[in-house]
């Protein structure tokens, strides 16, 4: 189970935890209102970079490109 105090990633981690608890990705996605593609994108981020990887980098940028 993933734990965080960062509000930005609580919802994303919650989705991953719910799928683990239910042992059903489709049902967890339906409950949380997200697509399975989104679930697997979050899962891949966590596997590659840990829970911190779920932080939306776009929200952290200053908007300059």
Automatic annotation (TrEMBL):
Task: Give an example GO molecular function.
Answer: sequence-specific DNA binding
Q: The organism sits in which domain of life?
A: Bacteria
Q: Which InterPro entries match?
A: Trp_repressor/repl_initiator
Q: What is this protein called?
A: Uncharacterized protein
Taxonomy of origin reads:
Bacteria, Pseudomonadati, Pseudomonadota, Betaproteobacteria, Burkholderiales
